[in-house]
């Protein structure tokens, strides 16, 4: 984040002294403390827990120090303090919005201030292997950070051809250490910390490395529960936990998903004196309102969709491929169960990964693992659609139609997130060399005609990527088939409902046609009119009613049911014709 009223070098690093060097350049414990400044030992050494006494002591020391300085130095000191206040306020109130500087530079203090609250107990696996040897070990956060900072310990041994750093979990100290060690691009780090849960999978080419962001779909433990995505709207942190809470995955949330890690801290914690805490609270409330409303709506919709759903966890996996044979994978799940099959293949001395000792083939294996998990998801949806089809064929119900509607919506989302994986695989196969050539400096390529452009993927990995592409094509086609079957079942249900309604109306029409003449005549003869000699007298009885009603029914009923009689006649004729044809062939 750029600093206001400060000088910067060509790389964007600030040349203005930090706040700690500006407010009080001579702390009391320093040997360079000026003798002309009065130092009250009794006041400074007396234990106290009140904030007012601390502020009064600091104010007294600053006033004594400023009184002994030259007026020009005091003015310069005041200007620097105002600049520090502006810088601290900008850090606190900053949010990644429109027009913000792209990328995340871990070397800047602003990055530590913004992402330092992202902490999680990660599981880091370091695998070094070649065709002859392999070494696999695991570390925690502190061990890994010390390992990255120690150049001698992190140096690769001569026999190592491929180094795979597999990071399970999302913690700023771990990502910062590995990014500084291997020079990860700031735009790639921005994709790691600021990605939508269902953002499209992609492949970005940089001069230092190849960066892949791929969404992995894996089945959950309970197939009857709705899908749970352990990532928030803007970052890889759970959105529904308060700061300091422990999630089920062991993540300690110190910052919210709207990229406001400092909004809930006091101004005194930042080392910025005089900054009003009301500004911080107002900024936090205004920034979190939209995200909170969005999360409430998502939770309400998820609660309404509870039922017979396929539990699918969608987790983004970030892959870095370097030309020196280093592969770095980062995913937000604090376990390494997802990549355990690949680790087992690394340990096997006769596997393709070991015999080839090719880092790009390791990346291909990770992509193949993601596609295999997608195949398991498709198989689960096939079983679910067969279950719904059996229910629809037995007895269509509105509950089954509701489940089919939810299933179709889930398939649409999965289709949208899985389709870009096919594009990524095809791009790696078809345009790897072309995209790598676009990174080469034109001036260097013109001077050095013997310079050969090489892509990040080897020829052997491209061959295996063809198989991954075919499997991904099958996954997408099966999703389309399942979605089509679900839509046909919904249409069949409503067609059957309409047909049953038509049958009910036809039966009511037949009853009405039969009894309407009788009702009309009964109403007519039942009227108390004078002079109705036709129904009076001992010689007249109820036979007169039937003598009139039956001829009317004989005329009216055939007129209304004539179409049904014609259809019955045509059906009998077709059955007789079919039976005669079958008999002729059998003879």
Please describe the topology of this protein.
Layout (H helix, E strand, L loop, with lengths): L19 H4 L17 H5 L5 H17 L3 H23 L15 H7 L2 E3 L2 E7 L4 E6 L1 H9 L1 H4 L7 E7 L3 H11 L3 H8 L8 E4 L3 E11 L31 E3 L23 H28 L7 E11 L3 E6 L8 H8 L4 H5 L2 H36 L3 H33 L1 H7 L3 H6 L11 H67 L17 H44 L1
Helix pairs in contact: 6-8, 13-14, 13-17, 14-17, 17-18
Protein name: Magnesium-like protein
Subcellular location: Cell membrane
GO molecular function: cobalt ion binding; cobalt ion transmembrane transporter activity; magnesium ion binding; magnesium ion transmembrane transporter activity
Quick synopsis:
This is Magnesium-like protein. By secondary structure, this protein is α+β, with helices and mostly antiparallel strands. The chain has helices at 20-23, 41-45, 51-67, 71-93, 109-115, 141-149, 151-154, 172-182, 186-193, 277-304, 340-347, 352-356, 359-394, 398-430, 432-438, 442-447, 459-525, 543-586, and strands at 118-120, 123-129, 134-139, 162-168, 202-205, 209-219, 251-253, 312-322, 326-331.
Key descriptive features of the protein:
single chain, two-stranded antiparallel sheet, 10% strand, 55% helix, alpha+beta, 7-stranded mixed sheet, 587 residues
